[in-house]
Every structure is written in C-alpha cells, then in structure tokens.
Amino acid sequence: MPEQKSLKAILFDLDDTLIDWGNVTQDWLAFENGFLGRVQIFIESQGYTLPFEPFADAFRTSNQLAWETGRRNFVAPHMGRLLVEAAETIGIPPGKLDATACLRAADRGIIEGTVAFPDAARVLGEIRAAGVRTAIVTNAPQPMWLRDYEMEYHGLMPYFPDCRLSAADVGYLKPHPAIFETALRCLGVKADEAVFVGDSLSADVVGAQGVGLAAVWHKPRPGESLLDGLVTPDATVTTLADLPAALDALFPNWRS
Ligand SMILES: [Mg+2]
User: Fold this and answer.
1) Between 167 and which of 10, 76, 122, 171 could a Cys-Cys bridge form, CB atoms 3.0 to 4.6 Å apart?
2) CA–CA dist 85, 80 (Å, integer)
C-alpha cells in the first residue's frame, strides 16, 4: 500500500477566497481620489508642487499599463512605485520620493462592504488546530503590510502568523511559479505536502497545479468562468464550510 502523504500546509488566496468582495458598496472613483489626494498632500508637504488632476491621471495611466503588462509577463504592479512614477511623470525630480512613505500617506484603509466569509475564522481555526500551517498568497499590488490592516480588521491575522505574501513583495503575479515557490519556501514544505485554495481558475488553480500543488477552487458565487471545462481543480467548494470535507478526499489523514 502506498505511503499516505501528510498535509503540512494550506496556502490561501485572499480576495474573494477569504474576504468577500461580493457586496462592496464603495464608490471606487471616490476611494481612489481619496487616497491619491492624501498622497498629493504628502508630496506637497515635501516642498513640491503637484497638481491633483494631472497626478491622478498619470497614476491611472501608469496603473493601467502596469496591469496590461503584468497580464502578459506576470511582473507584478507595485502601487508604491506607481505613485512615485506618476509624480515623476508630471515633474517631480526622479529619485526624490520614497514609495513606502507614499503608501503610508495613502492610508488606504478598508474597502466599504468587504467582509470575511462567514465560515473563514472557524475553518481556519480547525485547520490550524490540526497542526497544518497556513499562508496567504495574494495578487495584491500593495506590499503585504498594507493588506495586513485589512486582515486584522476582518479577524484573519491570528490564523496566518507565519507567511503572508503579496505579488508586490515577490515581484510576480500568480499564476507565475515564483510566487507559489516563495510561499512553499517560506513555510518549509514541499508542493505535494500542501494545498492551494483560491477563487480564480486562471491565477490560483492553474498556477498552483503548475508547481505541483493540489488546488481547491473556492467558487463563492455562481457564474461562468472562461476556463470552465478547460481547467480541472482537484476539488471545488462553494463555501469555506465545505473545505474540511474536500481536504478529507485529498489528504484522508489530515485531521490526525
Ligand atoms: Mg481572489
């Protein structure tokens, strides 16, 4: 009888996997103008003149270009560097602004209407209690310290003490192997000892399976995906409450 593999770690996507964005009430333009305005005030406090509209336009142009490029080569956009680039595009001397200070000034805060999925804390507690390690692997363009505020707010931080990675930190977007491999190294586990849970077939499921991880597709809302039928997750759950049972099928001894 083949030796039973043991489950050592579960890697989670963040947005729409643990945090539900399905009922966001935030006016996105107002939100973006809010943080860009705070960055503008910060940069002007350094003794520069930075008119708001050209700065906001330059940021939106840089941001859009970075995501278009990132979708082709998987190089991750970095919001701090995009803020600096936008300011430099409209005349701030190169090399004078600090990306981290600009992100602090942005004070991005919590997106109105986001909530943790109702079963997230309970299921994460169950997983941790079984001795399984956990990691966050998100395609966020913000460094993880900025997303940590949201994880705290949503009560998720206690379940991820070891390893939280954003694409901005690693430099690559899922499905690029680098971000998954960085997470496995961070936890000290091999791909066949771990599972990835995420809501995106193209980023999470394809990327995780590409490096040899079993991939659970968390599909919180009905609807078609372009990749339906082309990608086969190792398991599919519509609620996190079903994740423990899905793990039973993949790693029968994971609870012991
Ligand atoms: Mg997601």
Assistant:
1) 76
2) 9
CA atoms of 137 and 185, how far apart (whole Å): 13
Residues with CB under 5 A from ligand 1 (ion): 13, 15-16, 199
Tokens for 54?
């050209």
Q: How far is the CA of 203 from the centre of ligand 1 (A)?
A: 8
Contacts of 183 (CB under 8 A, 6+ apart): 11, 135, 137, 163, 165
**48 CA from centroid of ligand 1 (Å):** 38
Say which residues have a Cβ less than 8 Å from residue 223's Cβ, sequence separation at least 6. Answer: none
- Per residue in 22-49, pLDDT (tens digit) is 999 889 999 999 999 999 999 999 999 9
Residues 121-131, mean pLDDT to the nearest whole number? 98
